UniProtKB/TrEMBL annotation:
It comes from Pseudohaliea rubra DSM 19751. Keywords: Transferase. Gene3D superfamilies: 3.90.1200.10, Phosphorylase Kinase, domain 1. InterPro entries: Aminoglycoside_PTrfase, Kinase-like_dom_sf. This is Putative phosphotransferase.
Length: 337
């Protein structure tokens, strides 16, 4: 069973009515401590997940799965769960991730489907989802100075860097706080979307919160694993804004204001991701994410440059160019974005 707990297969068999010939085979993991196995039996398949309760948000996964399904978002079905052991038996949605299917010829249609899911979420109630508030957003931003600057690049924040980062953070949090609050997946991108016969489905949603309406949109359109031209990105964002406006989403700004909040929300996310990808390498030994750092850094630098009239962004950009940019070419993972 290639590393599966000895009691996992018997537990899986007990969840199914007639699992003749069942066997487990390992599946690729993700950035978490979860492990996945495909269960095959005569006439069917499922996915067994080993999610240690000490480290994984299993209760949240189950609650959000129900909430998203009720909103009309395709998520894996549930065959069984053992909360004490952290075992889940889920519907097998296949291996067809959206990322490799994205090409210049397919991306418009694929993103239209993905944005349909986001419209469904944005027009659904937050329910019991915790708030994606200033404290949560700031905690994420702090990953950038700690893990990317200090631990990965060896550039600790001095007083100037801290002052400029605090001013930038205040601007980003103010923008996020002014947006309509909707259910937010928080990792809505091409590696967490699966192509199924019924359309796109999403996974890895256990960290969902009630937060800014542009967050998932910028996660999708400025994906950390692929990049598209800015004119296409803004065209898709305008389309999404139009869908929300047609549905009367309360508090929605005009389209130009929406695009500014979209940019600033992406800046918050991508600063966080720089810290997360550095931490995944340094703390967790997952070096595969380092190759995506240049793309994510490129998003940060380009958004800063696109808003020269924003004093906090301009001051932080100047510090970034002086203190961080000269260190990048020497990094083994660096390539110019």
């Amino acid at each position: 069973m290639s590393g599966a707990p000895a009691d996992l297969l018997p537990w899986c068999l007990a969840q199914l009515p007639d699992p003749a010939g069942a066997a487990l085979a390992p599946l690729a993991g993700d950035a978490s401590f979860r492990r996945y196995f495909r269960l095959r039996w005569t006439g069917g398949t499922a996915v067994a997940c080993v999610a240690p309760p000490a480290t994984e948000k299993n209760a949240e996964f189950l609650a959000v799965r129900e909430q998203f399904a009720a909103a009309g978002v395709r998520v894996p079905g549930l065959f069984g769960v053992d909360r004490e052991r952290g075992y889940l038996l889920l519907e097998d949605l296949g291996d067809a991730l959206l990322l490799p299917a994205l090409t210049p010829a397919t991306v418009d249609a694929c993103y239209a489907q993905a944005m349909d899911l986001l419209v469904a979420l944005a027009t659904a109630p937050c329910g019991e989802l915790p708030p994606y508030d200033d404290a949560a957003l700031q905690a994420e931003l702090e990953l950038f100075p700690v893990w990317f600057c200090d631990q990965l690049l060896g550039v600790p924040f001095d007083a100037v860097a801290r002052e400029r980062f605090q001013a930038l953070s205040a601007r980003l949090l103010a923008s996020a706080g002014a947006q309509p609050r909707v259910p937010v997946h928080r990792d809505f991108h091409s590696r967490n979307l699966l192509i199924t016969p019924e359309g796109l489905a999403t996974i890895d949603f256990q960290d969902a919160l009630c937060g800014p309406v542009t967050y998932d949109l910028v996660s999708l359109l400025r994906d950390c694993y692929c990049r598209w031209p800015d004119d296409a990105v803004y065209r898709w964002a305008r389309t999404f804004h139009g869908e929300l406006a047609a549905r009367g989403l309360p508090g929605l700004p005009d389209v130009e204001g929406f695009l500014v909040t979209f940019d600033l929300m992406g800046l918050q996310r991508h600063l966080k991701v720089l810290g997360i990808f550095a931490r995944l390498s340094l703390r967790d030994g997952k070096d595969g994410y380092l190759g995506d750092l240049p793309r994510v850094y490129g998003y940060v630098r380009d958004v800063l440059a696109a808003h020269p009239g924003e004093p906090a962004l301009a001051a932080f950009a100047a510090w970034l160019d002086a203190g961080i940019a000269p260190r990048l070419p020497a990094q083994p993972w660096w390539s110019a974005p």
